[in-house]
From TrEMBL:
Residues 148-159 have a biased composition (Basic and acidic residues). Gene3D superfamilies: 1.10.1660.10. Keywords: DNA-binding, Repressor, Transcription, Transcription regulation. Residues 8-76 form the HTH merR-type domain. This is MerR family transcriptional regulator. InterPro entries: DNA-bd_dom_put_sf, MerR-type_HTH_dom, MerR_fam. The keyword Transmembrane does not apply.
Amino acid sequence: MNTEASPSYPLAELAVLADLPPRTVRYYVQIGLVDRPEGETRAARYGTRHLEQLLQIRKWTAAGVSLERIRELLHGAPPPVPPRACAIGSVSVCSHLTVAEGVEVVIDAQRAGLSPEAVRQFIQGVMAAFEAVQGQGGAASQGAAAHNTDKNDRQAGEP
């Protein structure tokens, strides 16, 4: 039995999480922008997928994209014009992933259009890739150090 069920929310809680009025959430479901919930009326439950859809819709409406265009985007149409460059005085929230001493990745999930789950997957992928490079790097860095020593000896005129 799976004890880690994905979270589910009643409409009121989902609306708070998405920072939208419940009426707006119901409207988005009615016009097909958001998937239908599990269950009906007061027993309806919404999951992570619904929350991600609502947050994406909020992002696009804040950028001035029409609901009709949002419908097209949600059904696979090409994305809108790339986001505007940051203007002087604009604020963005970024995550800083410290991979190792001297290696840091800055993630602006909103500008990249990444959901919280996509950010988690990206971070896991970066960490796994770095570990793989580190695992291969032991022998490779020794070979590179020997190569650099030989190069330095040749430049100094030593045999």
